[in-house]
Amino acid sequence: MKIRRMLGLDIERERYAFAKDEVVGHISAQKVADTWVKTTCGYCSVGCGMVIGVRDGKAVTSRGDVNHPVNRGKLCPKGLAEHYVLDADNRARYPLLRRNDALSRVTWDTAFDTMAGEFQRVSQKYGPQAIGVISTGQLVTEEFYTLGKLVQLGIGTPHYDGNTTLCMSTAVAGYKRSFGSDGPPGAYEDMAKADVVLLIGANVAENHPILCMHLDDNPSKTLIVADPRVTKTAMMADLYLPVRPRSDLALVNGIAHILIRDDLIDRDYIEQHTNGFDDLRTFLEKYHPDYVSGITGLSTEMIQKVAHLYGDAKSAFIGWTMGVNHSSKGTETVNAINNLALMTGNVGRVGGSPFSITGQCNAMGSREASFSSSLPGYRKFESETDREDLARLWDIPPGCIPSKRGLAYPDIITAVLTKKIRALWIIATNPLVSFPNIAVLKQALGRLEFLVVQDGFHPTPTTELAHLVLPAAIWGEKEGTYTNSERRVSKANPAVAPPGEALSDFEIFLRFAKKIGSYDKLFPGWSRPKDAFEEWKRVSEGRLCDYSGITYQALEEVGGIQWPYPKDSTEPAEASRRLYTDGTFQTRDGRAQFFCVDWEPFPEQPSQDFPFILNTGRTVEHWHTRTKTGAVPILEQIAPRAWLEMNPVDATRLALRPHDPVDLISRRGRVRSVELRVTEVIAPGQVFVPFHFAEWNINQVTQDIFDPISREPNYKQCAVRVEKSSTVLA
Ligand code: SF4
Description:
binds iron/sulfur cluster, globular, 28 strands, alpha/beta, single chain
């Protein structure tokens, strides 16, 4: 190479060579694929269909699937660059065991022997409940189903939850309380069919970009966006509502007050399909526009205008994400949103839905099948009928199935801290970056006798603490299904082999089940994800999330099928479907429930020492803790470091200038040397920092306060101060 360079020859020739592609014309020759593999994006819950181009056994490009109903050929920047994660330098390749305080390579046999031995030791000494498991929203549904059985019936601990509790458990709990079951009732098509779309705390332009395509399908609708920040989504709105942080519940109650006062409600629907309306009407009397204006900072005229737009619409859609969910009042805010939809009959109607836009690619699959917050198939732990039903399907005694949910994620961490849990298995998540008030988490993990971390990446801040690291295959390397936010099941397929000795999570679960003697009882004869899928179809049959008519072949053909899709369905597989179209809900009497839910201020108000309200969130370039996207050069170069947004009024008062390094301090910790962005996107008195960065980990300052119903953290608001940093920007 050196000689060629000295001779003046073009050593970059191969890198810059062009070739002709049938679809897109001239492209880099290195991106010309010899085979194409259809799959589904492994990042967010939009669920875009895509194809991976493979050349000589290596993934060289990702493209949108033009025939997929969700994205019709489009992808966002993360999806377009997704193939790069497959051969990232930080992939986990071999099982690693901690010996003499360092992780060293071992065989899979040694890894499984160690894990089984440690779990058995802990179980014998303290009981199986001293083992905890925290998983993710990124496995395929077949893996969630398998893991749930393995943990609850094989290992025998109920203390199993997913990191999905950190992002959308409030939506789950809110749906269960209002409608009797989890499950977003609408379809993406509703965004195009609604007269009014109200987005609350949902920056879809940045976090779910392809949903903007569905919003754009109907330019005549009115788009209303409520958000404390002037996000990219707010900039798309016909009407932007700059609500004060955590005033969403008051706004929604205020809209409901006006709908009732001005008779913009659907009395027949309320009469026939709901309970609790009279109590709600009395309760909402205090949510007079003047009262709501004082809480939200919106004018009374603006609140009335929004209420009338929503109430006059033939169909109205409300979408929300983390702005609502990341709150200690999150579940109740979801109930207030459901109240609005119910009192106007906007449930199960084309264009009308209270719609939780969820987070990870298969958070929904976890909700449906995982045996963590519910029994598989949205069955309830506390229902004897549901337990007997499952026991019959699995041919086991009903007494084997727990009658109570185990600890939720934050409570597992508390149990680790108090040494009630001694061994922990973390799967495909990175809590050392994502968990609130990280100092407490570090203290807890330091008390574990055994920590096994199963991940596609190493090192991560979490794998570095592990006693055992299990290397797992990721998106693009394994088979299964994902369910997106609109309940559409799509197929994920392997395009390349996993690196080194990494195995699919499914294979790891089966091999571990064999090691602990549970395989024959729980997974007889299973060897492929399809074996789990076929059993899951039987378990879901007749349930709200009925998969029984879905086949792998049909998924490949139509690109995605929304459940419920029973085996005798005569509808076209790819058609849009809604829940509760006949007004019958999953409650005992079939009627939905109104809830009287009161606004209250967020727990840690600003003070003289900590005068700013901190807001955290995502950026379009990155994903979760940046384990994946930080290894994709094109994404990393666009957003290589964290920043802090501050209004010019505050920056001037503090004598801070754009790009100054600043420290962010709360009662719990300090984030050092974050780059200052001075912008009117953020209101005076508030600051915003993206949450992806381990190097500027915002969870050093966030609070470990949780929604009492769903256990979701209150990430969104806490009191901080900002100081000019004594260090320079790295
Ligand atoms: S919008 Fe979500 S699912 Fe679609 S390409 Fe982007 S990250 Fe993937």
